[in-house]
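Narrative summary of target 7.
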Amino acid sequence: MTKNLYERGEPYTKKKWNIIRAQIFIVNVLNKFPGLIKIAKYLLDFVRIMNYQRRSKNFSTYNEINIDKIYWVQPQKIQYASLREFDVLTDKGKEINGDWDLLKRPFEELDVYIAFKEHFHEGKKWETTVFYKRILNNIHQGEYLWGCKNETDFNIRLHKLDNLFESIKNNGYKTQQELLTDPNKPDPIKLEDEIAVNIGRNGDLLFNNGAHRLCIAKLLNTPKIPIKITVRHSQWMDFKRQILLYAKNQITRKIYHPITHIDLQDIPSFHTEKIDRFNIMQSHLSHKKGTLLDIGSYWGYFCHRFEDIGFTCYAVENDHVNLYFLEKLKRADNKTFEIIPKSIFNCKEIKYIDFDVVLALNIFHHFLKTKESYDKFIDLLQNLHTKEMFFEPHLPEEFNDNNVYKNYTEDEFVQLILKNTTLKKSQEIGKAQDGRKIFKFS
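Modeled conformation, tokenized:
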């Protein structure tokens, strides 16, 4: 007697066979007309971006914002003041729409900053400043500012600011936690009294509270100061969720590189700062500044980092989805590096630039897949003008497809580059997160 055999369980989500059949039909058509593939890819990337934007408005999983987190930033990154001042206690953690984030009020044009600059750098008396006269007038009209109810109280307050300036100058900037007189009995209101910023729709850090300390930090060129974030613009939060949706679609459930913007650093990335390729390369740089070309820059992590240490950077990226995030993250951190939105093989302008550094990290093996791309790759190497290159090859076993035109071992790839460039020396300088070696050519 034949035993009944079990069938596979029903899929939890039923497959949409009509859509699958349509996809197969489209692929077959594209294979017959290769010229349509670029158009189809562009449209598909456009749909992906629109999908991230649409879904981000209803994506509610990003609700773990630490509203009490302290971030350390360069005071010079806070260039503008928010057009609305939000309460650091009752408004913190909120998403608020509107035009309060427009860049119309430079912080260093506020009367308070000008007064601090005139007093501490130019030696003027407080009483001669516009700021002093405005605050005194407000106090006379009944406002109770910093506990001051008359001119005497205000002058005492200013004397304390003189002492604060000297203290920060001599002892460095300290957090409110570090300033507690009794760490066992912290004052929760006092702990809230860090410099506060809001984040605008494009990622700008906008001053919200703590003007006196921010003025002092700027005037003393303090390297970094502790801040807290009060509110974020709704459009900024939409963008933040788009990044999370992108990560959710990846096999690793992570983005590829860390993001440098302070409000996005908690998003997990495949490459971590524990084994940071930037630090490996920086420690082996022959040039401390100059021009740098990043081939296949993804979202621009290396251009962000190298620009910070003085390089003029060029980011080459051909993928439309990556370009979308690359451009937004460049704006969020107010970077100036140039984005070249095309294939490296079509970048005629780079043939006329002598680069000090070229980055070729986990990218060159993509050019080995066909004879056409391989020939273009060799031409690229032979026409690339650079003093040094950092190169990260693939592992040969990563090419499971036997139809690839070339597949090199690490040593063979190194020899190919030495043969086709003006670079004559190679050195292994470290390993990436996934164990791939990093080489320096010079």
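The chain has 13 helices and 13 strands.
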